[in-house]
Amino acid sequence: MQFSLLINNRRCLDSRLLLTGLFFVLAGIGGLASTIPLNLSTPTMLVLSQVPSVEAPMIPKETTESKVSADAQDFSIDAVTKEEMPKRVSLKSEQSFPISNGAGSVTVPVGRQVEVIGLKEEILTVSFLGGQKEVNYKETNFVDEVKAIRAERIKTAAAKKAEEQARIEAEKNRLVEVEKTRPKRELAKFMKTVEAVDQSGALFSSASVDEGRLILTVKSGWHYQPYQIRLQAAQNLWKLWATIHSPNEPDKARLRIVDINDNEVGGSRIWAGSLIWVKE
User: Within a domain: residue 243?
Assistant: First the structure.
């Protein structure tokens, strides 16, 4: 895609003076880039064979007891982390808790929730109304509570991952949009500097950018200038463009100079952007 910036055709001044003035001003700008180094280096088809159908083997029905024992085998009390410890558990058997003031005990029925104080090996320290007691974790729904906490942690981690992926995708789209407008912004910056010298627009009739290459269309006055003046002016125009477009890799910045009939009269050679030529 080309972004074209047409220069208003105003009253032409003496082209020799303008080009000479442009050369000396850009020489000062180009001096900033005079140390720029010259770099001369420049379906598979997947076939799936038919698989004969195989009847699923008969699986014996599991009893409730076998499922419970399988769950118990999958669970390791030693693998429970501090973050996975439940705050409360429900009792699976009736338990007697001491009263906090030492005046007897109270019987807590099955299903009642008690507060978890700590865990040591397979023993839970639980509390009910201030009275504490040690019970085996299997006498509570401790396993179910831990699994629920783990499931919630996995869900939260997945949500955070999805959120991060969405943020990365949004940033990627933003950078793509910035890249789309880059040629237009760079060209505007270049022309702002050039127009400070050629205020009447007597030297260039248009300017555009095509895939990092700056294309300048010069007016007839350009061709009447001495060869050396045109060469040095073109070199300094390229230096200015390189500092804007690719300051870290200047030879990627290319220049093409054409006349009003699109005949090429100067620019960068194929080997490197810094190798500038003009028609003799």
Answer: yes
Domain count, the chain: 1
* CA separation for the pair 247, 32 (Å, rounded): 11
Q: In what order do the strands lie in the sheet with 113-120?
A: 88-90, 113-120, 123-128, 131-136
pTM: 0.47
CB 218 within 8 A of CB 203: yes
Tell me which of 12 and 216 has the higher pLDDT: 216
Residue ranges making up the domain that contains 220: 3-37+178-278
Residue 90 lies in a domain: no
Coil vs helix vs strand at 133: strand
Does position 3 have pLDDT exceeding 70, yes or no?
A: no
> Alpha-carbon distance 71 to 263, whole Å?
82
Q: Which of 92, 93, 75 is nearest to 84 (CA)?
A: 75
